[in-house]
Amino acid sequence: MRRPLALGLGLTVLGALGGCERGAEAPKACLADLTLPDPANPTAGMVRLTGGVFAMGASPEHPEEGPPRKVRVGDFWIDQTEVTNAAFARFVEATGYVTQAERPLPEAAYPGLSAEERRPASLVFVGAGAAGGNPAAWWRIIPGADWRHPEGPGSSITGKDSWPVVHIGWEDAQAYAQWLGRDLPTEAEWEYAARGGLDGARYAWGDDPAPEATPLANTWQGVFPVADTGEDGHKAQPAPVGCFPANGHGLYDITGNVWEWTSDWYRPGLVPASVLEQGGPSRAMSRDPDEPGQPKHVIKGGSFLCADNFCFRYRPAARAPGPHDSGASHVGFRTVLRVTTAPEPG
Predict the structure, then answer these.
(1) Among residues 154, 145, 169, 217, which one has the least CA distance to residue 326?
(2) pTM of structure
(3) In the chain, which stretches have pLDDT less than 70?
(4) Contact between 194 and 301 (Cβ < 8 Å)
């Protein structure tokens, strides 16, 4: 069931949604020139990566992250940034696509729900103060919350063209990718890209959690979920793409900001390398111990909600389950285009 299972993104990976501050002003766009998608130019806004063998996973901070596997990936292109509101709007304008959060749940698939319960809606954080210590009460399924209205009716993305699009379900992300002749990355491709050439490093920038005075990602500072101090310049909310240094492959926001969908089905721990190289486990292999009857996809990268004292899942090896038919206010995506080599003449 889509909306109740949105909590299946994992209470251990959820944080708070609130104001956004950079001093006295809201943050401005950080990249001056963002390329909009164009089906006639399939690699626009992408970076080409040469494939290879790398150590996927880690000696786990969480049990589902390992043990590590040596995995090979081929050459592929990947979006330099998370897909933005402006990019997704271009897709919607061209195709008339309606996201899952904007559609009512089909009565035939959810016969036990009333028409009221099947209204278009999505998952939004509503605050921890009044909810006390119950994580399930920190979030609410809000009718009218969607990619255009990320906090529900009355909110908007006006002036936020360069912010990552959110409230995007796996099906929505796949539809966008297919419009451009692309795909969602496999978990192996995503992690290979995220590591930026630093094979085996704990973070996308190395092993030091804070090697510079300059913030390296939009994550949660302070004690979660009491308050995000906003030391990275963005307080309890997504940042425009490209506000933090790119990784070794020239990719922005591969750490934090918003979780990103992959094409792989989720199961605890990494399957053998031979399976990963084929694009990950099958749907039949998918299993989330918290909701074993609901197949889910892997999401990667963590978000602005990830705190060291709570989930610590903004590392390349970290992974979490995402219901394939749900989105939330901290989940977005980026796409890939795989490089295929023509066969040699006979």
Answers:
(1) 169
(2) 0.90
(3) 1-26, 60, 127-135, 341-346
(4) yes
Q: Which of 203, 238, 202 is nearest to 218 (CA)?
A: 238
- Name the token pair of 245: 């240094």
Helix (H) or strand (E) holding 154: none
The SS3 call for residue 239 is coil
- Tens-place pLDDT, residues 169-198: 999 999 999 999 999 999 999 999 999 999
Return d(Cα 110, Cα 106) in angstroms, integer.
6
CA nearest neighbour of 78 among 202, 260, 237: 260
3-state SS record for 227-275: CCCCCCCCCCCCCCCCCCCCCCCCCCCCCECCEEEEEEECCCCCCCHHH
Buried b (16+ CB within 10 A) or exposed e, 87-107: bbbbbbeeeeeebbbbeebee
Residue/partner pairs of 206-210 with CB below 8 Å, 24 or more apart: 209/308
DSSP 281-296: --GGG---TTSTTS-E
**Residues β-bridged to residue 38:** none
Cβ distance 236 to 220 under 8 Å? yes
Q: Checking phi first, is residue 330 left (phi over 0); if not, alpha (psi -120 to 50) or beta?
A: alpha
Which of 253, 220, 214 minimizes the C-alpha distance to 236? 220
Tokens matching residue 164: 């990552």
Nearest Cα to 182, choosing from 90, 79, 86? Answer: 79
The helix (H) or strand (E) run that includes residue 342 is none
Cα–Cα distance for residue pair 172/273, rounded to 1 Å: 28
- Are 82 and 257 in contact by the 8 Å Cβ rule? The answer is yes
Order of strands, sheet of 259-265, starting from the edge strand that comes earlier in the sequence: 320-323, 296-300, 259-265, 331-332
Q: Locate 32 and state its tokens.
A: 């001056």
Q: CB–CB of 202/308 below 8 Å?
A: no
Task: Tell the residue number behind the tokens 């040596």, with chain if given.
Answer: 70
pLDDT digits (tens, 9 = 90+) for 255-309: 999 999 999 999 999 999 999 888 899 999 999 998 888 899 999 999 988 877 7
Contacts of 269 by beta carbon, 8 Å cutoff, 6+ apart: 63, 64, 65, 66, 67
Place of tokens 């028409």: 115
- How many CA within 13 A on the CB side of residue 108? 0
